[in-house]
Structure formats: C-alpha cells, structure tokens
Amino acid sequence: QVHMVESGGGLVQAGGSLRLSCAASGRTISTYAMGWFRQAPGKEREFVGTIDWTGGRTYYADSVKGRFTISRDNARNTVYLQMNSLIPEDTAVYYCAISSYGGTSRNIKNYESWGQGTQVTVSS
Known about the structure:
Layout: E1 3-7, E2 10-13, E3 18-25, E4 34-39, E5 46-51, E6 58-60, E7 68-73, E8 78-83, E9 92-99, E10 111-112, E11 118-123
Parallel strand pairs: 2-11
Antiparallel strand pairs: 1-3, 3-8, 4-5, 4-9, 5-6, 7-8, 9-10, 9-11
C-alpha cells in the first residue's frame, strides 16, 4: 500500500506562485503515472494534470494549461506541481494520487491511494 503526503500549500496573492510536493512511501511510484486533482468548497474533485512514469509526458486540464507544470523525481519517490499565475479560482484543496493501472488518465476513477491534500488559497 502506497501512502501519499502532499505539502507546499498556503495563502498567495493572485499572480503568485506555489510549488506543491507529493511524497510517496510504502512502495515505489517510479513505474506508475501520477495525477493531481483539486476540490473547491461545494464542488466535486476535479482533474488538474497527470504525468506518465517517465516524466516525459504530461496532460493538463484546460483551466490550468500554460500555468501549471507537473514533474517528478523517481529517485525521491516524489511528484511536484508548479503553479504560476495563480488566480482566485485556483483556490482548493489539492490532492495527488497514483494511477491504478499505471498509465495516465483524466478520470478520477482510475486513481487510488489519495493523500490528505494541501490547501491552496489565492486572494484577489
């Protein structure tokens, strides 16, 4: 069983940046795609982006494309989410999860081992 711990969230002004980390323990994530999702108050959890096991391919939600970048360090069993040009609509709890079958997906049902999340708040 793999355990995820997200960190790096906080309060930032619009236009600012944050870098989230997702550290995995329990087993290696190096052969699995990883995903980032977010959940705003009163809304369903939504896809943010995903990265394949090599780190060579990434896919993003249209709402964050060009502003967010996912990367990974398999030696550290860690995945990152660099968030730039933040807007108030990015305010949410951000979660990482591991692909259930190994490949990338935009479907939340294809992920498991969710962490507790990290709060990101963007003020206007």
